[in-house]
Design brief:
mainly alpha
Amino acid sequence: MDDPLGIKPLGEAVNTIVKKTFEGIEAFLQATCKPALDELGQMLRDHVRVWRLNNALKIVNKAKEKFEIQAGEIQLKANPKVALAIIENGSNEESDELQELWAGLFTTSYSLDGKDEENLLYVSILKQLTLPEAKLVSYMCNQSKKNLSDTGIVRSQTLSIYGDTIAEITDISDFNKQEIILYHLSSLRLIDKPDSTNPGGFKSLNFNGKPLAWLTPTNLALNFYIRCNGFTGTVKQYWKL
């Protein structure tokens, strides 16, 4: 029997798991992104990378499900450079919630000509986010009111968020650690800087006895969010503006 993925040399237990996980994935990647299949085959033959392989397989499985729901019978291709970047970086993540975001990026990397490179921008962002940060970005993008500029660009209105609300979103109660998150998201250009004297941190450290942040998700954040959630349309379409 042919062994295109090179899994025969693996131990029987691992071999069984791999076969089950790969059910349906091989044909999917063979048709849409052969280099990604080859990369997973390399990981299969490297016992040291089994942990990363397991994470990568979960991401591709999730992406396949999203792809089937959205793409139907349309013949789309993934840009190999983007797909390989997602596998390389996403395979380091074992959080199910963050794997869902990686899967969303994988799904939205498909296009008719297979040349779309936009998601490379979002790979560079997602690989730097912790789970608490990703949760806060999701909250900001969903909760902020949006409007269209005169040029048709979607803009978000500023959210006023107290530290205790951030604690509920991120499960981080330490206000100092919360502010580190805010500075990091600002450095990634996911939130606008409220002013030059306080670039991304809490606006007030003693507002009604609570730290207060004024957060404005950027257009970059909005596009990043919808791509990670598997949506291939525009920000305007996603929020039905």
